[in-house]
Amino acid sequence: MINNTTYFITILFLSLNISCVGQEKLIKHIERFIPKSTIASETRVYSGNLNHDEFEDIVLRFKIENEPEEREHFHLLLGQKNGTYKLSSKNDFFTEDGVDGTAFNGVVIKNGYFSIEYGGGGNTSGSYDIITFKYSKENDNWLLHRVGSLFMHRYADTEPTEEISTQKDFGEIAFKDYGIDNRTLQEVEIDFSLTEKKEIVLDIKNNLYEPIIINSFIFSIPSLILTIKDKNDNIIAMPPPPIPPDDIEFHEKIIKGRESLEILIGAISEILDKVPKNDIQIRGKGFYKTLEEKNKKYKMTSEWVIIEKHNLIYQPE
């Protein structure tokens, strides 16, 4: 059995010698999964077996124009029987590249495991970080398996310093959730704004790179509603004004990837007239679905906002 230091040095050697031959060929097979705003020089494709089946899979890594330099995107594409690929999981919240002198080095895929690797260092030292995920057949998902760091002094006669964390340390974390914390941009945001005429606008911003569906109905009840409460916390729920649907049968509205939808919900005075007291609070909440997972709903909720006679005041929880 090799020790951890040997493991890291071996992986480091292999990663630094990954060949880019065939990248162009693989990219042609998955062009439809690559956003138009992708930075070409930051796009990488890695092939291997991600889920123990008989088909070759792909890890697609890319960056997007006009985003923070450190932000990366990793999408897992599973090979299908007919030779095409299907998006199975993704993470749009990696922020490792370029932080504290580290740089993205590559992805290694082997037997249901894949590792995202970073290298860095200065004149007298070097470091290597490996984030490994393992396919779980039970969950049909990839879970964080191990996070390791190796720090080496170039000229000191000392052994490399290493740190290893496993699932015993950090628990069960799905690939799609890695790197997400309270500071991370939400996938879909609801916000309020005012026009020059003091009309309140409900803004729904789709931060995903794929379309979402909103305004669908559940047992004839709209899934997008406004909730209003007075100073005594008495709740009054009311739907926003109707949205012209893209799908007449299901009253659904589609918001394209990286786009927003603005819904005019009326003047401040009109909203205040609906409740017995002034200075009420309002919140927008509801659900959205993706085109690929129409049977799965995701929650979207705004912060509470105080409506005064002439202004909006945000009240973060």
General form: elongated
Q: Please, how many helices?
A: 4
What distance separates the N and C termini? 51 Å
Query: Secondary-structure element sequence?
Result: HHEEEEEEEEEHEEEEEEEEEHEEEE
For the sheet with most strands, the description reads:
8 strands, antiparallel
Number of strands: 22
Q: Which bin fits the share of residues in helices?
A: under 10%
Q: Structural class, judged by helices and strands?
A: mainly beta
- Number of structural domains: 2
On the 0-100 scale, what is the average pLDDT? 81
Contiguous runs where pLDDT drops below 50 for at least 5 residues: 1-21
Radius of gyration: 24 Å
β-strand percent reads over 45%
Question: What does this protein look like?
Answer:
This protein is mainly β and 317 residues long. The chain has two domains: 4-177, no CATH class; 188-315, Immunoglobulin-like. The protein has four helices and 22 strands. Strands 12, 15, 16, 17, 19, 20, 21 and 22 form an eight-stranded antiparallel β-sheet that branches. Strands 5-6-7-8-9 form a five-stranded antiparallel β-sheet. Strands 1-2-3-4 form a four-stranded antiparallel β-sheet, covered by helices on one side. The longest helix has 13 residues, at 4-16. The chain is elongated and about 75 Å long. Residues 1-21 have low confidence and may be disordered.
